[in-house]
Write a structure and sequence with these properties.
The protein has 310 residues and is α/β, with parallel strands linked by helices. The protein folds into two domains: 136 residues, Rossmann fold (3-Layer(aba) Sandwich); 151 residues, Rossmann fold (3-Layer(aba) Sandwich), CATH 3.40.50.1370. 39% of the residues lie in helices and 14% in strands. The protein has a five-stranded parallel beta sheet, covered by helices on one side. A four-stranded parallel beta sheet has the order 2-1-3-4, sandwiched between helices. Bound molecules: phosphoric acid mono(formamide)ester (CP) and norvaline. Norvaline (NVA) binds next to helix 6.
């Protein structure tokens, strides 16, 4: 079975730390115009059931920089959109390409795709998780504030796919995660429970950001939830990240958002466009962290930069 990356839990702590270190190295090298052709001749298929700017461009650019090629497939323009089963699509694509990245609604369908793929499958966002974004966020935190172990992270807003990936990260990398979230929009209790004492969920945004090293949020309307807009706006209003929220956090706290952002909804313009915001570095790091991920998966999980296990 190939290694897949469907959630952050598909990697262990040392692998994630090595990926982040490699991403930081690759970024330095790319800034010197020194591109590493470690995936020469390799092909990535990218299947999108939902819209994307960052995920599409970062994976496609990553494959080009690494000497390979990426193929963009909109689910609606493929036979998937006409009802070809994911299992059949997985068998066919994995006979032709070296890796598949999928952005999909149902996480369970992604699992079925991976079970039928003979090449690594990457979750480019499902309704349940967004692990690629976490690699970029962890790299960004590391660059700004060093090791995340033992740090305090405050999540504001929806208990959504991003929140679930933060919960997984808290457990694996051993940081404290406080989730401030309205009662109706809590993260999945099974995912929270699996993270043990690394994660606390509160419905009170009042003091959730106190002493936080990172404050992070995401849209209140994930893709597919647009019809719930009015109801969600009302429930989430007290959970906006404002300058008052940032003032409770540590003086050197940073602000992150996976983007796209909605100023005046989940975050005020003063915060996202202010001096504590690292959202542009965070978005740019999608490129570097996914290059490291592609090297890891296409190298059979054993690229030369990964420390030997055991
Ligand atoms: N953050 C993120 O995944 O952005 P896109 O939806 O633009 O890919
Ligand atoms: N939670 C958002 C993330 C977008 C990158 C969504 O699923 O739409």
């Amino acid at each position: 079975m190939p290694r897949h990356f469907l959630t952050l839990r598909d990697l262990d702590r040392s692998e994630i730390e090595a990926l982040i270190a490699r991403a930081i190295d690759l970024k330095k090298e790319a800034n010197r115009k020194n591109l590493q052709r470690t995936c020469a001749g390799r092909v990535l298929a990218m299947v999108f059931e939902k819209s994307s700017t960052r995920t599409r461009v970062s994976f496609e650019t990553a494959m080009t920089h690494l000497g390979g090629h990426a193929i963009f497939l909109s689910a609606n323009d493929t036979q998937l959109g006409r009802g070809e089963p994911v299992e059949d699509t997985a068998r066919v694509l994995s006979n032709m390409v070296d890796c598949v990245m999928i952005r999909i609604y149902e996480h369970e369908k992604l699992i079925r795709f991976a079970e039928n793929s003979s090449v690594p499958v990457i979750n480019g966002l499902s309704d349940s998780y967004h692990p690629c974004q976490l690699l970029a966020d962890l790299q960004t935190f590391n660059e700004a504030r060093g090791d995340i172990k033992g740090k305090r992270i405050a999540w504001f807003g929806d208990g959504n796919n991003m929140c679930h990936s933060y919960i997984n990260a808290a457990r694996i990398l051993d940081f404290e995660l406080i989730i401030a979230c309205p009662g109706e929009y809590q993260p999945d209790p099974a995912i929270v429970d699996a993270a043990g004492d690394n994660v606390t969920v509160t419905q009170e945004p009042g003091r959730a950001a106190e002493d936080a090293d990172l404050v992070v949020t995401d849209t209140w309307m994930s893709m597919g939830q647009e019809p719930e807009r009015e109801k969600r706006l009302a429930s989430f209003k007290p959970f906006q990240v404002t300058p008052e929220v940032m003032a409770q956090a540590a003086t050197d706290a940073i602000f992150m958002h996976c983007l796209p952002a909605h100023r005046g909804e989940e975050v005020s313009a003063e915060v996202i466009d202010g001096s504590q915001s690292v959202v542009w570095e965070e978005a740019g790091n999608r490129l570097h962290s996914q290059k490291a991920l592609l090297e890891f998966l296409l190298g059979g999980g054993n690229p030369p930069w990964l420390p030997a296990s055991g």
